[in-house]
Amino acid sequence: MKINPNKCVACGNCTYVCPMNAIYIDPAMNRATIDRDECVECYSCFNGLSQEHLNPSLVRGIRKVLSVLKVRFDPEPDVCPTAAFEPDELSWPRVVRRAFSDPSVPHESTGVEGRGTEEVKTNDVTGRVKVGEVGFTIEFGRPGVGVRFREIQEMCWTLAKANVSFEKRNPITSLMTDVPTGTLRSDILAEKVMSAIVEIKVPVERTEEVIRLVWDVEKQLDTVVALGVATRCEEDGEETVVLPILERLGYKPQRAKTNIGLGRLVTLEASGQAAAEVNGNAAAEVNGKMAVGAGAKTA
Amino acid sequence: MTNTLHRIGDAESFKDDYIVFAIPTKVRKDPDAVTKLHRFLELAMEFKPVNLGDARHGGAIRPNKHLGPTAHWNRDNKPDFKAVIKGVNVATTCAAVFDNLDAAERFVKRVKEEDLGISVNVSTSITGAETCCEYANLSRHSVGYSLGFEGKTDKIPDTDTALLSTMCGHGMISHSLAKKMICFVKENRRTPEQAAAVLTRFCSCGIFNPSRAKRILEHARTGQK
Question: A64: domain range?
Fold first, then answer.
């Protein structure tokens, strides 16, 4: 992202809306400036701020007069008065920042917006997490903290050593050069993103083991980790296997995302075959993209 | 879209927070997905949502790229639900946000009756989702529990700020803006409703709950819980 210095009037509104606190008013220039190393290309400034298209010289003049008179004025806080933000041409590897930070852009590897994951949200159609299995979503970097890929790699290495199964249709998996070891592309390791989700699956018996592994690694990381644990419910809709394990480990889950099974109603007759078929396709697709991952077009 | 899962708060704090979203799988594409998503959102309208959205185009209170200079005196903070429905043109995740259990229950039941054949999830307290399923005579298929935030939790802001900013799990609601809106309400420079509208515009999926935000801002004004 760029801020056009010819348009910026240093009103400061954008300094508050940046989730990474990467925008500040440079006193020497008296213009808003972006710390490019901290900016994750989330486009929150460009997409979220409303825009006026006022004359910059006129606005600067009015601001100067009001400032001399010590008059405080109270404009709308989510407006860029001169439409000064201009999207940058992003090249590899910087383009991965946007892929993992701007939720309105679908991930190239999965076609899914947001963080690019389907998890158990479509489990009624895909059969991704089956009875007796547990799916983990290990999310790094939020709320508004950010994460660099080298920190994600630490977790991936540890999980790979424990022989977990990485979800094939996942943007992080698609950036691995070696899935069995959990190794990510070396040219992205220094890139910072808003957040990213590692998805793995294990038999339910390994739930506690995986959580303890995550606990060990997250202590060494300079970011926030949000852990999600998903499983298939029983026929009657109850879930009496995983929740007791979580409670035994000291968790008191309050919130959940519940798939209510309506996707199954139409695709029931095809679901068994379809799940096997699509899982096979997904594996082939990921293998084909493994060396390139998100942003391949600009690599 | 784990962005609805990790909202900070206990079950009581989700009493006015029910997100029902439809998500067509990309694994097996449904050629009628867009039509079904339109129908999903139209049905939601019957139950008075507080926000609607699609993951590609945003929610019902959106930024305006061509504001006139008088907007500072008469800003339009009303949700435009019809624009959301009209704007859905690709198979993406569509969400409806409700601020009461009754509406969520009845919407889930209505969606079941409509038999769209698309995956539907309810993101709220565990018990809230169970209650919705019971009302609609549905059995839960799968459940994804939030275990909350771990690691360097000292990077998480104060509770009121986190309650607001985690309502966009994609991180589009900055801590600084949430804090600024709390201050604006405390200073009586904005009403809770106006401050909530400012925050809502930054959520690009339409899953931010302006009604819950208004309650949090109102409480933050006096420090009462």
Answer: 2-86
CA dihedral A171, A173, A178, A179 (to 10 degrees): -170
The tokens for A6 are 């010819």
| Per-residue model confidence as pLDDT tens for chain B (225 residues) | 458 999 998 889 999 999 999 999 877 778 899 999 999 999 999 999 999 999 999 999 999 999 988 888 889 999 999 999 999 999 999 999 999 999 999 999 999 999 999 999 999 999 999 999 999 999 999 999 999 999 999 999 999 999 999 999 899 999 999 999 999 999 999 999 999 999 999 999 999 999 999 999 999 998 765
Q: Does one domain contain both A256 and A132?
A: yes
- Inter-chain residue contact B169 with A142, CB threshold 8 Å: yes
Q: Give the separation between CA A198 and CA A121, rounded to whole angstroms.
A: 16
A298: in domain: no
Residues A117 and A262 in one domain: yes
**A281 shares a domain with A137:** yes
B180:A274 CB<8 A: no
Domain count, chain A: 2
| Residues A140 and A280 placed together within one structural domain of the fold | yes
Which chain B residue lies closest to A102 (C-alpha atoms)?
A: B170
- Interface touch A53/B148, C-beta < 8 Å: no
A197: helix, coil or strand? strand
List the single residue in A with minimal CA-CA distance to B25. Answer: A122
